[in-house]
Amino acid sequence: MQHNEVIDKILFKSMDNADFGIFKISSTNANVYLEIWYMLGQDKETILVCNKENIKDVKFDIRNRNMVIYEDENQLRKK
Questions:
Q1: How many domains does the chain have?
Q2: Which residue range forms the structural domain that includes residue 58?
Q3: What span, in angstroms and rounded, lies between the C-alpha atoms of 35 and 41?
Q4: Eight-state DSSP code of residue 67
Q5: pLDDT in tens, 5-45
């Protein structure tokens, strides 16, 4: 997708129009926490997925939320 806007404006606009969000939590994607809380702040459904190897890296503020935990991409597709 080509655009001339700042990427966060596009992202927030997409989340404003969404009914729910699916978020993959990993140790390499710190920005996902902003996106998760943005959706939660709008009282929208959030689906959190995390690889079993990364579960130890999940930050305390979402650790108590339900998550789909998977061992590999094939298992995640089945869930």
A1: 1
A2: 7-78
A3: 10
A4: -
A5: 777 788 889 999 999 999 998 877 778 999 999 999 999 99
